[in-house]
Amino acid sequence: LVNHGDTQARILILGAGASGLQAARTLHDNGMDDFIIVEAADRIGGRVQSAQFAGYTVPLGAGWVQRAGSQTDQLVHDLDLRRHTSDYDSLTIRNATGHDVTDEADANYERLEKAIDKLNELSARLKKNDDIPDMSQRSALRIGEWIPQSAIDKAIEWFEYDFEYADGPEVSSTEAVGLDEGEELYITDTGGFERIFDEVAGFLTTPAYINHTRLNQKVVSIDYRNDISVVVTCEDGTRYIGEYVLITFSIGVLQNPNLIQFIPTLPEWKDVEIKKFQMAAYTSIYLSFPSKFWDDTEWVLYASERKGYFPAFLNYQAAGLFPNGTPVIVVFVIGDESRRVEAQPSDATKAEIQQVLRDMYGDSIPEATDILVTRWSQNPLTEGSFSNVPVEVPTKCRQKLQSRVGRLFFGGEATSDHFSGYIVGGLDSGDREARKMLQCLEDFKECPTFEGDGLECEQAEADSACSVPSINTAFLGLFCLFGILCYRPI
Ligand SMILES: Cc1cc2nc3c(=O)[nH]c(=O)nc-3n(C[C@H](O)[C@H](O)[C@H](O)COP(=O)(O)OP(=O)(O)OC[C@H]3O[C@@H](n4cnc5c(N)ncnc54)[C@H](O)[C@@H]3O)c2cc1C
Asked: What CATH number should be reported for the domain whose range is 7-46+194-277+386-481?
């Protein structure tokens, strides 16, 4: 039942990241402005966020445009964001005794490249044929005769694979490997990567739309028992009532049973698919120094016997980045190392990295003057960095992740068919779900949903059992009829 003070809209969009903002934009472009975005943070943008560090605007979340020609790439070019084409060949590899082993690594790279060709070939075959079971990237690499043994092998494998998926090849799906992604752009704009949302969601800052976004509203429960509406309740008690609700929270948030209470609980077929997905962990650690003492190449790899231990450093002074700026390096860790580092104080992390740098450059290097550690896996609004497709989720099962449950629709990067894990996956999923909701608003009878058992992956079919009047025509009409306050604040 609608209470006095409840806020109503035909569509509620939960989350103001790439997915939620694009959904709002698609609805708006199609003449549907009866929506509200509910966001827990005090800002929009979600995992696209930046901060100031040592005089730079640095990315805390997404930093690169990986896919040339994608919508993200288009936005970056349209807005002419300052950017740098990453040069992964500008690379020095140092071992734990400080020796430059870059040349020595050539033969290892040659072996790895042959295995990558094999992996790509297997991936293309798996994509073409749904009946062949997927395999881990580790298996595919092994088939390509790549078995990493030395510290150099581990370093270059980390740089080629783990860094991209934020997980080891043991976990990641071969079928889901992206082919031929082209050059990668690192965003160095002083306004931050989040500037892309100026174009996607700029209209939301105009006076007519300012009330469409509700910040500082942390959703704690989603009640979809009612046939004609959904009640979304926030931590502060505020309730939002919508005819349709689009959920764009990360897969990590949805996997944590303590964060959002679904009333009733989600059906098994949906819950299984959410739980099978993998939320990866990826940490960026920025360090500033009084002087630069590292190599001039854009990247420095630390070849350690312990795979993934502070393995890759981005040199902010490299040509094309900030050659004359304050000396800063960024080191990246993923997976269990990321979760370990994010759980400990920054000083402890700084001491560990300082030792790694001493191993590589000697004891006389200066102490870091400042450190910034990102902590996405400690953040209850993300519970990790981005989704990684594990072997357990064949492409044919993806529709279950996308399918609605009653009046609940599911967006967010993890649900994207081809771009999960990326900003473009978020944008793409928001557009997809907005179009679906527009279609369902026209005729709920034709609104597709998954029909099947918990573990199956069936084709989506029309749900003929759910034909109900719209909330505006029936539910609100009834309340207005009886003189109950019909407050629609937007
Ligand atoms: C460290 C890191 C590095 C990355 N690198 C890249 C990269 O180089 N290139 C790239 O393309 N992508 C990268 N990504 C991934 C990219 O940022 C995401 O795929 C994309 O931004 C996800 O958008 P989304 O809308 O699906 O989710 P989100 O951005 O997570 O949006 C969901 C929104 O829901 C809100 N929310 C969560 N819980 C609640 C709640 N209970 N109540 C209300 N609101 C809630 C969140 O605050 C958030 O704003 C990276 C991400 C991270 C974290």
From this structure: 3.50.50.60
